[in-house]
Amino acid sequence: MSVDNLKGALPDYAKDVKLNLGSLVTTSSLGEQQLWGTLLACAAATRSQRVIAEIAAEAADNLSAEAFRAAKGAAAIMAMNNVYYRSMHLIGDETYATMPAKLRMTIIGNPGVDKVDFELWSLAVSAIGGCGRCLESHEQVLRKAGLPREQIQEAIRIAAVVNAVAAVLESEAALATV
After folding, report:
1. CA 88 to chain CA mean position, Å
2. In this structure, what is the dihedral angle of CA atoms 142, 119, 157, 50, given to the nearest 10 degrees?
3. Which of 22, 50, 102, 138 would be 123's cystine partner, CB 3.0–4.6 Å?
4. Looking at the annotation, which residues are catalytic?
5. Domain enclosing residue 50, as ranges
């Protein structure tokens, strides 16, 4: 199981997605933990069993047990936060922004890995989740920590490509039953 398996499963019409997926792993400017944690967190965010299985298998070879757990934790906490904060923003009544969320989020303060890595994974998952508030918040934390914009952009590019892989493969699986 691997990224190569995912590339091999993509149909011809998704050649751009296939090429982008290959280049994510071979040309990344992110550290190994940042790269594989981002890939794993994004895979989890897609909810595609195939994408999760393939990326998790390879990520397990490239991440410590703590980092593997933290990447899954980033996907889990952002699955909740993206819905909550996106909804509070979309309602359009700023009064909601002053109200306490009353949601437990301790993993953000103590993720078990370098905080910058966890923030990067949370940002990438938020791109898939479509939460502008979360994207802004995590980007600001990353910039204050000194992460270059190019690496922040790379995490979002990973999110976009992994999401596209999942969309294509899930569509193909559904179409195969028609």
Report:
1. 21
2. 170
3. 138
4. 131, 134
5. 3-176
